[in-house]
Amino acid sequence: MTSVLATPAPDAAVVRRPGPVRFLWLLVVVGLLVALMALSVAVGSRGVGWSDIVAALGGSTENIGQAAVTKRIPRTVLAVVVGAALGLSGAVMQGVTRNPLADPGVLGINMGASLAVVAGIAWFGLFSATSIVWTAIVGAAVAAVFVYAVGSLGRGGATPLKLALAGAATSAALTSFITAVALPRGDIVENVVSWEIGGVGGATFAGIGTVAPFLLVGLVISLLSARSLNSLALGDELAAGLGERVALARGVAALGSVLLCGAATAVAGPIGFVGLVVPHLCRLLVGVDHRWLLPFSAIAGACLLTGADVLGRIVARPTELDVGILTAIIGAPFFIAIVRRQKVREL
Amino acid sequence: MTATHSLAAEDLTLAYGERTVIEGLDLLVPPGRITAVVGANACGKSTLLRSMSRLLAPRSGRVLLDGKAVHRLPAKELARTLGLLPQSPIAPEGITVADLVGRGRHPHQRVFSRWSKEDDAAVAAALDATETTPLADRAVDELSGGQRQRVWIAMALAQQTDLLLLDEPTTFLDVAHQIEVLDLLTDLNRTRGTTIVMVLHDLNLAARYADHLVALSGGQIHAAGTPEDVLTEECVRAVFGLDSQVIVDPTSGKPLMLPMGRHHTAPRADVLQGTSGS
């Protein structure tokens, strides 16, 4: 054995994971996002010429083509924002629970937000956009705590499959509740049904502005939790040994995650699987260091949702397919693949 | 030599719910030495270690680091002085060796601080000391048990603490790797003056490698002192309920315990003429 007192090796930097590879991937996903955003503005159920697109981007709404493009701008922004929120929220949730199946949709947290909003509208005449966002976040938090508590019952604590089962069961129950709340109310049922599928079609800048502060706070909290999540990934004992206040760190990160998915659900309905698929793909690209994984998941989540939204406008012309349906179609096989993998183990 | 820190338990009582595991225990860890804690299964060895690294709050009594109760110290401050390696730590899937070892730097970093030159140097030195530098870019999942254990110890070294607690660092390792790990810890103790406290299953390895041996039984310290004072036939009987013969280890000069079960305890006459033990 060489001396432990060894002075700092001159080639110390060599032992670090190559940064350039991750940086290259960063450029790739940012480039992809920009391309998808451009596509999202240019492509729709109505074909619009380039001159009209450029004019519309400049603020003009002189003809029907330009008006259509003008409507696509907030829609694109919303897809980016919601996708980023869900991707990041999923990555944080997987880190907090050390569970590869964690996702705001799978764990029923989005449904908790939905039920809270629907009940609020139906029973309490909830009207202002801000109160809807608050209600959604509270609903998401209650569902998160409930599912985690149920999933932790019994031997072995919150194992991946138990947590996913608890989430699926809770999700199913909450969906029924939503229907039960909405059905007798002919005046709101149509809105509820379309909102419940999840989409970004009705986006307005006013709506985005309402959720923006919540998403921003969630984003900051989540990104600042990166280092704590790195410690938590080593298990509670080791994390505590490294000076992490385990319960506090987990609570703060979970709060960031719930803020993100609750606010995203308030504005776009419960969109599933983005938070599940995106962090797994990002781990393949940049590894398990949350300081890279979290921002990457946000950008990749934005890509996925923007891409899915564009696809939804193309495949069902002249109508549109809601983005929540498409993410489910993409995500469900992925979910099965993760479950079927030989070692479903804690992250 | 680094500054020596004192670690002690004072009238410590530890319990999980209703079940009391350790009761009224006093322990003084000699600074700058290697202490091994031995005892039968479920006698509270790991529990004691967990509490000394403040993973478990005492029911009563205190654990004192330099005279201050560890359960009142700021988490990161404690983690810069005292490191812990649990029994079977989990590595996140796909993590590289360098990344894992780098996470040992956590207590030295702040929320906004960037990865520093000192961090780099500490990781490089830790990899070097454990001879894991060639593995730096490998995934931890791919390594053998012995390599993996060296990587975990490297992570603990990167934490650069003057005190290191290890819960059975040699479990699941073959005998060559057990010796390798214990040699490494001895190097660490001799060159850096790191105080080491470890729980060990193997009495003979504990007697050989520890300066100070602590035998736990029924939630109390049965005996503590040099291996020669502690590892006796009476002690083995009291702590493990096992008859044994303790001889001087011809390799190390330390005591060597030979267990005596119901079978195979009569020496062959042609080997040891007339010196039958029982």
TrEMBL record, chain A:
Transmembrane segments: 23-43, 73-93, 105-126, 132-151, 163-183, 203-226, 247-272, 292-311, 323-340
Stored InterPro entries: ABC_BtuC-like, ABC_transptr_permease_BtuC
Keyword Acyltransferase found: no
Cellular component terms (Gene Ontology): plasma membrane
Subcellular location: Cell membrane
CDD domains in alphabetical order: TM_ABC_iron-siderophores_like
Main location: membrane
SUPFAM superfamilies to which the protein is assigned, alphabetical: ABC transporter involved in vitamin B12 uptake, BtuC
Biological process, per Gene Ontology: siderophore-iron import into cell
Keywords: Cell membrane, Membrane, Transmembrane, Transmembrane helix, Transport
Record carries keyword Chaperone: no
GO molecular function terms noted in the UniProt entry: transmembrane transporter activity
Membrane topology: Multi-pass membrane protein
PANTHER family: FE(3+) DICITRATE TRANSPORT SYSTEM PERMEASE PROTEIN FECC-RELATED, FERRIC ENTEROBACTIN TRANSPORT SYSTEM PERMEASE PROTEIN
Protein family membership: Belongs to the binding-protein-dependent transport system permease family. FecCD subfamily.
Protein name: Iron ABC transporter permease
Species whose genome carries this gene: Modestobacter caceresii
From TrEMBL, chain B:
Subcellular location per the Swiss-Prot or TrEMBL entry: Cell membrane
Sorted UniProt keywords: ATP-binding, Cell membrane, Ion transport, Iron, Iron transport, Membrane, Nucleotide-binding, Transport
GO MF annotation list: ATP binding; ATP hydrolysis activity
InterPro entries: AAA+_ATPase (IPR003593), ABC_transporter-like_ATP-bd (IPR003439), ABC_transporter-like_CS (IPR017871), P-loop_NTPase (IPR027417), Siderophore_ABC-ATPase (IPR051535)
Membrane topology, from the record: Peripheral membrane protein
Domain ABC transporter: 7-243
Pfam families found in the cross-reference section: ABC_tran (PF00005)
Keyword RNA-binding applies: no
Any one biological process term the GO annotation gives: iron ion transport
Domain of life: Bacteria
The protein's name: Iron dicitrate ABC transporter ATP-binding protein
Species the sequence originates in: Modestobacter caceresii
